[in-house]
Amino acid sequence: MISLRLLMLVLITLGCREWVKGDPQVVPLTASLAALGMSLGFGLLFKVSALRLLTVNSIARDRLDGSHTAQHCSRIRQRIEGAWLLCLPLALLATGWGAALNNMQELGLPQAVALVGWFLPSLFLLMLLELTAAQFDELCQGSERAVASTSVTWPSEWLLRMRLGEMAGLITCTVPVLLIAAATDVVRLFADDLLLSRLLLVATLFALGCVVLFLPVWLGKWMGVSDFPTGQLRQRIETQLSILELRGIRPRLLCSRGRWPGAAIVGWFPRFRQLWLGDALIERLTPEQLDMVVMHELAHVTGKHFLWRVFPMLWAGGVVAMFSIFWPTTAGLELVGTLLSSTVACVVMLIGMSAMAHECELEADRTACALAERACNWAQAQPGQAAKEMSGALVRLLCDSPQAAESSWLHPSLRRRLSNLRR
Q1: Which residues contact 87 (CB under 8 A, 6 or more apart)?
Q2: Is 56 helix (H, G, I), strand (E, B) or coil?
Q3: Rounded to an integer, what distance in angstroms lies between the CA atom of residue 126 and that of residue 168?
């Protein structure tokens, strides 16, 4: 759900916030218009590129049509987002927007509000990108002469993209930071200097606890997740959970009009965990293949993979601690040490998160076969059939998109996963 680009966007934004100082000479309105103007420029660049792609498609349909057109548009968007990451320091610093925000915070603006301002240019750009993508989908659908029962208007498509697209990932990344900032704002209003440091620690832990416990609920409401309707599928999943003795996992349905063919375990603790299944996933897979996808997600729970994914963050914290202990604190070197430790810590965290995620996915594929032989009657009767059904599910879900079949930041390639299952 969280792409590498989104995580880099958050890290770069927070890094710029720590780098710049407040400047009372900067006019907030002018700076905000300049920052949002850069966002608008990147949004228009994507719109022009999408229109050019549609023009090429209408002239040479034998070269670009249907899903190939959408894939080309997706690649263009990725390039636009990559360019935005490179130019993000300019949008926040060169425009004066960051200096204006820090100056307003020094004058009494709550830091939670200031943090929202730091992410405002990126949020505006994301809304523009989703708007263009929704209009692009509607035009492509019209060019393909889709039937009325499957056609949707671009406003409804835009709202769907805002609900299910990268906005959900950005919310997941920023909500913890904003909650911690809001909690510390409240503490600063009522605490004196003697108790401030202790109360700030308590407020931070309280905000993190709220995120850990309730973020799945908030995220589910944002994405439109609902309870599974009573029926055979729900009964089968609940029976499998009972056989595997996994308590406190609620199966939930994510209605996406066929856009999200995925599954996920959301939540860290029992009674707060949810098993999300997309409507597109249920439509595309056979019952046996769907069972294997469910077993894969449950394998993340039995293997406690959510704990393993925390380790890279601890490694990054260890890097910062080592620098603070051994780096010289002489004048002129302290700033260099801060920049160097932050850079190395981010690299360690990103590489560690990627390596840990790949290993967890491969282990979940293997463990899913063992779980299926315990919880699924069809797998008990035919040894080795679970691995074949898991492979079939992966091929059916990923082969339609060459980009999805390749190795990504958080998922190994389809070829590696199939080889892992064969072994």
Answers
A1: 38, 42
A2: helix
A3: 11
CA distance linking residue 92 with residue 85, whole number of Å? 11
Burial of 408 (0-12, 13-18, 19+ CB in 10 A): middle
Two tokens at 21? 């100082």
d(CA 251, CA 278): 11
Running DSSP on this structure, what letter comes out for residue 23?
-
- The stretches of 90-143 forming alpha helices (DSSP H) are 97-106, 111-143
Q: Name residue 265's beta-bridge partners.
A: 275
State phi, psi for 253 to the nearest 5 degrees: -110, 130
Nearest CA to 132 among 89, 81, 203, 169?
81
Other Cβ atoms closer than 10 A to 194: 8
C-alpha span between 402 and 406 (Å, rounded): 7
Q: Which tokens belong to 30?
A: 């002018």
Helices (H), strands (E): how many in the chain? Answer: 18, 4
Residue 384, judged by CB atoms within 10 A of its CB (0-12, 13-18, 19+), counts as exposed
Structural contact between residues 114 and 28, judged by C-beta atoms closer than 8 angstroms: no
Residue 206 contacts residue 198 (beta carbons within 8 Å):
no
Tokens of 302: 């039995």
- Contact predicate 73/8, CB 8 Å: no
Q: How many other CB atoms sit within 10 Å of the CB of residue 75? A: 12
Residue-wise pLDDT for 222-269, tens only, equals: 888 998 888 899 999 999 999 999 988 999 999 888 788 889 999 887
Of 63, 62, 72, which is closest to residue 136 (Cα–Cα)?
A: 72
Which class for 192: exposed (0-12), middle (13-18), buried (19 or more C-beta within 10 A)?
A: exposed
Q: What torsion do the CA atoms of 175, 180, 186, 189 make, to the nearest 10 degrees?
A: -130
**Percentage above 70 pLDDT, the chain:** 91
